[in-house]
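Batch manifest line 281
LIGAND: adenosine monophosphate
JOB: complex structure
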Amino acid sequence: MNVIKDPETVTEWVKERKRQGKSVGFVPTMGALHEGHLSLVHASKKSSALTIVSIFVNPTQFNDVRDLEKYPRDKGRDLELLGAEGVDLVFLPDVEGIYPDGAEAWVPIDFGTLDKVLEGKFRPGHFQGVAQVVSRLLDIVRPDDLYMGQKDFQQIAIIRKMLALRNSGVRLQVVPTVRELHGLAMSSRNERLSHTDRMRAGKLYEALCYLKCMYEDGLSLRQARSKAAEMLDFPDFKLEYLELCDRTSLSTLDEWGKPGEMVALVACWLKDVRLIDNILF
Ligand code: AMP
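JOB STATUS: finished
ARTIFACT:
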């Protein structure tokens, strides 16, 4: 497995392989890898000739310095896992390599309301940081396919819009959420929860599933939403939002919409760990 830190060397490496007619799948991550990340690797390996994974804890998408400091890092283990998966290249840049002109040089993208609702409301600036790093990574790697997780639903919407605005030929491939045994969506931040809390955190997905069942049973959205929110009314849990939205615009729905066009999204603190999840209707 190739491990490269220098962006220009990565660009050259890819250019050479593409000249040979090979397709390139790219999986950007912030490391502390788990089965969720590996499912993106599997998807890429299935469809693309070559798979590249980047590991970079991007400072510009953290709106809270403590969250950045506490973010788990384990490069040795990550490389072992990726080696075992048969990944072709791991890109391990540093901040200077990603932002040679300084992170402030970024010209924000106009996402309309997309980056201001839900996560955007609670994490101002987060999605501009995500767009900034993905944009730079795509310029370096220039893949054919970009693999991202449905777990970060709003992030998918942002990147889809960015690719469309830039007329990018990169295809966005969305991979379903991988969950722990009790339903909690896998996340690097889960490492900071005790075993018991990880089990309790399964409540988030339970609440989303409950909402979907109530839709199927014909309960009003207002009633269903408030009952689902009650399921998260427990010691140590602090709900930030639980919303039913239009899948494309992410605008909040006050009434049930059409099947295939809705998504319910939740964000909730469990002690000092912030968890997000979503379910498609
Ligand atoms: P991160 O390292 O958290 O930035 O995540 C890197 C990629 O992995 C993103 O596209 C995430 O959406 C995806 N991802 C994270 N957790 C999961 C999961 N539980 N299931 C599927 N994809 C995930």
